[in-house]
Each structure stands twice: as structure tokens, then as C-alpha cells.
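Archive transcription. Copying these from loose printouts into the bound notebook so they stop getting lost. Printout 1 of 2:
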Amino acid sequence: MSNHDRSIAASAFKARCLALLDRVAQTGEPLVVTKRGRPVARVVPARRAEPASLRGSVTVRGDIVAPILDAWEADR
């Protein structure tokens, strides 16, 4: 636990959990949850995943414009 981490008792965390999670997400400041004065958990903001690029993920082989099936009986 670093010196600038805020801490809160587990009972208080339980009562204010959603608001505290919102605050951690907004400020980026970690929060240490304690039980009987001892740290038991550290709440940190989740890393935001960058959207993966699809560039290069598809390989095209052959003619992608030509029909892939024989003519249907309805077409005859």
C-alpha cells in the first residue's frame, strides 16, 4: 500500500460500495479496504482496453465476387 492510497473499513465500503467504485473509476485513485485495521483488498480502476484493429485479420483467397453456388432450379 502506497502512502497516497486512501483506505476505508470494510463495513463502510459495504455501505457505500457503488459510490466508491464510481469515485475510483472517475479519479483513478486506488482505494484500500481494511478489516480490523489490516488491508484486505485494493480497489483500482480497470484498464480500458483499446479497440482492437481488424486490419490484417481477414485473408481473402480466390475470387470474392463470383457466385459460389450453381444456378438454382428456380433460375432455370
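Printout 2 of 2:
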Amino acid sequence: MRVEFDQWMNASTAAADVKRVIESCVHCGICTSVCPTYELLDHELDSPRGRIYLIRDMLQGAAVSARTRDHLDRCLTCRACESACPSGVEYGQLIDIGRQEVERRVPRSLPERIKRTLLRRALQNRPLVRVALHVAWMLRALMPASLQKRIPRRPARTGAWPTRPHTRKVLTLLGCVQGTVAPGYDRALARILDQFGVALVAVKGSGCCGAISQHLGAPQEALQAMRRNIDACWPLVEAGAEAILLSSSGCGSMVEDYAHLLKDDPLYATKAARISALLRDPVELVGSLWSTGSLPLAPLPAGQEKLVFHPPCSLQHGMRLKGRVELLLQRAGYQLAPVSEGHLCCGSAGTYSLLQPALAGQLGSRKLDKLMASQPQAIASANIGCIMHLQKDSPVPVRHWLEILADRLPAGERT
């Protein structure tokens, strides 16, 4: 697929990367077989190949319209196409650049801009999220059923963060929404690592990984979030922190991209590369530690053996760690039934479920049908967004795999 950029794009620092990505596509169409939106809409321009054509034409100077923007908006950025592509097309990088360019050429209406700005600002404001959720939990019983199920469930009480001192330390970011909606994920990770003599340190001054801004048309705001997190982590990195772990794979996949997104920043490129190199998903470190040590899990209660695992797109396509969590759960004694269409997105995709509720709802229902086919007692996953999205309509609990394991630690280690 040849490309000749217009004058504006040729002057961009991203031109060489974009040209390489576009020209690596041989338009074979394998990506269409794994694309959720193509599966639902059966439209070439709602497939990765079709969107690549749209982006190429736009960057060559072709006229664009709101319809162009709609086709790019409907992409979940699940990156299933990257896992399937025999040519190694880095579609995730391209769709971000395409969205930024269509935002520049076809500005959204004022109400749309206000909605997206409020969404970005609200979700990244931890105190505001906390207050809003507490009000929603208080008034939940007065709301109609359709609205009740959209409100995240109040988090269960969990044990305190371990305080035993350890020489080995790994870092985690404070994040944004997850700290209020599901604080137990990080505590579960901390308790598991504590069993292996590793301390999990929540980095003061850190915050949202930047994904919300990046995917809502505010790349400069995203870069500022990345720089803030790098600055907050850097003293601890220099002091010998072994790794950076994030309990939600969507955030981990974003931090893994810091090196690419900040490669042209003369002040942060080297530091960003170091931060990305330190990034590990919890399954990598826990799996490594467990292979040489022991995790004192209580026996499984009768009737709780049957699980299914929903691998988030960020874990299986973004970080390429498909099948790793399943192995740990099986080692812990769970019976995991195979799930058909495991590569397809559940429809959460960050803020996608809020901005594209119809498509997200269809994908969520389809995913739950596949997950419930074996009649499991619970669904396990690894990303806050997926868990919240599936839990709305799931007949069984949807939980993070870290909490599932941590709940079986000896009682003395949970407090």
C-alpha cells in the first residue's frame, strides 16, 4: 500500500512512522476476520483495512467529513488485528494519529467537545469520582433498574496494604477511577507479592496513565500525564525499584507505549524508554515468583472450582500475554472451560462504552453469552473497564484474578 503524504503531513515528525505502518499493510483482509466492528456492521470502512485506507487518503490530502470521523470513532482500538496480521502492521499507532488528524480537519460540534472534555476531566479527578460515586451509591435504590446497573458496585471491604518491610520493591501508579471503584485490586496484588518477599509501592504524585486523554482526542494532555508519572516514579527507579506493575492491563498497555509516545521529547525520551522497559503485567512477575516459590492458598471451597477467564484486549493483543493468567488459575486449582470467540472485545474499551453504547452493548451481550456457555460460578478478568462492563449484565460475579487468589491467602495475611 503506497502513500504520498500532503505537505502538512510530510513536515510532521510522525511522517516516517506513519509511512512505514501504512506501507506494511498488504491489504490481505485477514484483519477483517477478527475485527469486532466489522463483525457487527459488515462494512469495509469499519474494518482495520478500511480505516487504513481512510487514514492514508486523508494524509494524502483527500477531503474528509464527519462520516470519516465516525468510522474512526467506531474502532475499539482492541488491536486484535495486530495479533492476526501476518505483516505486523502496527495499527494501534496509526489509528491514534488518524484520529488526531481528523479532529483537526473536522472539528466536533460544541456539545460533543464539551462532553468529551468533561469526560476526560471528570474521570481523571479522583476526589470528584469519589464524591460522585458515593452520592450514586446512596441514591441507587431510588433509581430505575436500567440506571442502577450502570453504577459500579460498592467495593467490598478488603484487607489493609501489607506493611512488612522488604528489600525488593516494585512500583504501581495511583491511577484514576480504579482507586475508588476497585481499590482491592492493588491491595490483592500487594498481598500476593508480600508472600514472595516483594513490596508493592504506590507512587505518590502519580495519577492517570494518560489513556483517557490519548483516546479522547487530547494527545498533549496525555503526554503531560505521562511526564507527571515519569517524574513521580523516577527517584524510586533510580533507588532500585525492580519493575512497574499495574493491576489493570489497560493501564499497563498504555505505560508500555510511553517509550514510543515520548520518543521525540528531548527531555523525556530516555526516561520514558526506561519506564516502558520496567513495565510488567502482574501475571509476569507473579508467575515468575510462583515458579520458584510457594503461594499458601487455602483449599478451594466446594462449588467454586468452575471459572472462565475473559482476557482483556490490552492483555492478549496489546501486551501479548495471552494464556498466562489461565495457567496460574489452573495451578491454583480452578477448572477453566474454553471460551469461543476469545479474541473479540467485550465492548468496554476505556470510554468506548460511554460514547458508543449501542455497539458496546451488543459486544458485551455477545461476550457474556460465550462466557456463560459452560455455566461457571464466576468470571475472572484483568482489567477494571472489562470487569465493570461485563458485571452490569452478568448473572455471576465478575472479579479480578488477583482478588480471587488473594482471598485464599491465610487469614493472618489478609489483615
